[in-house]
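Q: For a teaching session next week I want to show students how multiple molecules come together into a single three-dimensional assembly. I've collected the sequence lines for a complex. Could you give me the predicted structure tokens for the whole thing so I can convert them for display?
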Amino acid sequence: MNNENQPTTSQAAIRAEGLTKTYGSGESTVYALRGVDLAVPHGEMVVLLGPSGSGKSTLLNILGGLDSPTEGRVFFDKDELTAFDDRHLTQFRREYVGFVFQFYNLIPSLTARENVALVTEIAHNPMTPEHALELVGLGKRMDHFPAQLSGGEQQRVAIARAIAKQPRVLLCDEPTGALDSKTGIVVLEAIARVNRELGTTTMVITHNAAIANMADRILSMADGQIQNIEQNAHPCAPAELTW
Amino acid sequence: MLEFLAPLDRKLLRDLWAIKGQALAIAVVIGCGVGMYLMSKGMLASLADTRAAYYERYRFADIWAPVKRAPDALLEQITELPGVRRAETRIRAGVILDVEGAAAPITGEIQSLPAIRGPHINDFVLRQGRYPDPLREDEVLALEAFAEAHQLEPGNHLYAILNGTKKKLTITGLVLSPEYVYAISPGEIVPDKKRFGVLWMNLDALANAFDLDGAFNEAVLLASPGENTDALLEQLDLLLKRYGATSAYGRDQQISDQFLTNEIQQLETMGRLLPPIFLLVAAFLLNVVIGRLVDTEREQIGLLKAFGYSNGAVAQHYLKMIGVITLLGVVIGIVLGLWLGHGLARMYMDYFKFPFLLFRAPPEVYLVGIGFSLVVAAVGTFGAVLRVLRLDPAVAMVPPPPPDYSRSARWLERMTRLIDQPSRMILRHLYRWPRRAAMTTIGIAMSMGLLIGSSFSLDAMMYMVDVSFNVIDRQDVTVNFVEPRNVRAIQDVLHAPGAMHAEPFRAIPVVLRNGTNSRREAIIGLQPNAELSRVVDTELRPVPLPGYGIVLSDKLAELLDIREGELLRLEVRTGRRPELDVEVSGIVKTYMGTAAYMDLEVMNRMLKDDIAISGTYLLVDPDRTDEFYQALKNTPVVAGVSLQEQAQDAFYDTLQESLGTFVFFNTLFAGLIALGVVYNSARISLSERGRELASLRVLGLTRGEVSYILLGELALLTLLALPLGALLGYLLAWTLVQSFNTELFRIPLIISPSTYGYAALVVLLSAAASGLLVHRRIQQLDLIAVLKTRE
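A: Of course. Below is the structure for the complete assembly, covering every listed component.
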């Protein structure tokens, strides 16, 4: 593994040490992660590349406090996530983490604005739902229900919902996986803008290598391990991406 | 293990296993309906069959013809009356019994026993011991229940006041009699084995005791099959008129049979009303569960159709699922019904004294129960199966678009502006699926209604008891004299230790006629300003007896089809036997029996008697009751005693035993229904909205907050269901009150606030229990798995 580009631990927003995740036991043990070490500095845009089954979603879920590793430790700034119980993990997600998923997971019975408000109501220092929706370019469609929005618009609502609490980290799992490339780029632009303007540490999972070009840092995963870490000195704007 | 099954059948079994909780909940509700039906119909058939067989085998009389005294030779003429199959004469009289260990005197009856074995008509079952020695004057048979209640066995003694003479008697055997299946003393409302005894004594001995040598005071008859007994009754009255006949009567006025008929009627009503309600709820549950299951499986259905499975095969798959659940319900129902039926039969055996009572439901009851369940299941799931048939495979395989909540009502939006997002989700969800919300609410309301409808009868009975014993009849003791006596007899009774206050009454046997309607009744003559036993209206205000005419209970007026102010024909069957027309001066609502009242003075003037009374109501010093009882036992003029407190206790005991058990089971059933409805709704919501709820968890909402969205909705629906359930309960109670209107009882529509509260509590607890079950599921939501799957 190439460790030269690893930032020093003191700068890291997220740090993982020796993460291992297994399912099953005995001969049928399946390794999803095999000793992953990782440090993501504050404010960076990281793209996690890898084929399906490489363990990237498992890693993201553990970093976001949705799942716990079989072995190893995760630190969020100075707090050890892996020492948290379920209540603390919920609290952690509530305050610090924004999630974006492939299938949006919006609440169909709430409008765009209300979907965002769902989060801002319980957060400590949120921006207004309107501001969050302006940031993703949906200022004019705030009172629409998910059923009245296109896939790209729904995903942008999901991003607005994720960032409205002003999270310290934004985790996106295949955010463009269900979208065509044109719509996907609009969504990526929203993510890039949030990263740039709010300085939110951002991790994007994708199996689409083209997207990696917008990252500050590119992690490649295979077989539950990080195979390569690449620093990208000149990230390009999402509009320049093609696939 | 499942290899031998077709793939679709394997899917069926696994799907069923996956929804086992819900399937079981539905099956239990079906089971309750089937069980209830089986129990009530089976018990009805068993009681009716047992009664018929018992009456047949022991030749229960068709007609009773009491007289004052008639010569034995008259039997021949009676037998020759057209329509008489067989007739017998006997002596039957009221006695006061005294058993060692019993402080209070016991009211009883004694009957004559022919010299050779038992009587032909109204024969009895000798359960223990032997017949009295024809030569002994002190040997008797005793009614088994009474003897057992006092731990009397053959060989034991008891005392009886026979026509004023106290006599020591020896019990030789214990019997059951078709005349005393419901062993109740005249004027009481519930049987009390301890307080009512019947003895059978050798004819000669009894004739001696009552100065009836060569004479009888009651004829019992078997009518020829198919004979119109009305004509026979008329002829008997005519023939026996000069022997002091009080009017012959048929089985419909024989007190034991009357109560038995009453019970059978109640069972019939119960069997007609309650099971359909259970099955209706089951149909509703099936509708909801299968309907929503089909919705969640639309992709699979599309896929199956795309693979070439025919519409029929796919529909059949779901029909099989419904069939399995229904059959499971039927099996639960049959087991439950048989178990309850046997329990009920045992309970009945305790106060209906049959020599045998086997719970056995006729095959058609099973068939109807099963058929009805299947029909109900089919109706309940018709819509869902139709949707399966209509699903176009291409459409089905595309996931349904997210439900559109944009068409929300403006009033709802204005309202939701003030509340948080989770509450808004609840309201919008309800508004989006109003039918579903309504169904859940109705289902819960039905369970509450069922609870109220089945437990209000306790309130009503308690009310009746309270009114009867504390408002109408406020005396401690009622004393009946052997013969009507001069009013001065009161003084004798008042001399007894402990007697504090006495009010006289007179009861006279009459036949009341209005046109073609006639009734054999006793009119009670009361002092117009009576303080103890009073006539009261529905508002429980004492009704002063007017100085003329007759006051009828509303039921009697209804039976005679007569209104206030009209003239009623009175045929007095005692004394000079006058026949006269009397104005109906009032009609009062009563809950028990078919009473008729007159001012005592008016009555005596009408009878042209000296002022005479048949008995007296008494207040007794509670500290001196034992002394008073002792004195009463040795008073020769007393023919019968009725003790209010013990009658009231007996009533409460019976209520606790019979109605209490009934209410307990209904509570159980209704609780199960509430549980079934709420649990099913919550589970289905959970599977439909699992993804949504998991998303919320990921967003950082706590388990409690997520549970709130799902359970808050159910809580809201449950709360909405409470007033509706109260209303349904009231309606059900009203319906039951209408159908429990018999000559013996009219149940008042009294539902106490505590019954509403109790029903609401059971519903809330059931809802809470199912909420807890679902909450545990929410705890176990697999966040990652849910998020990765597409809708």
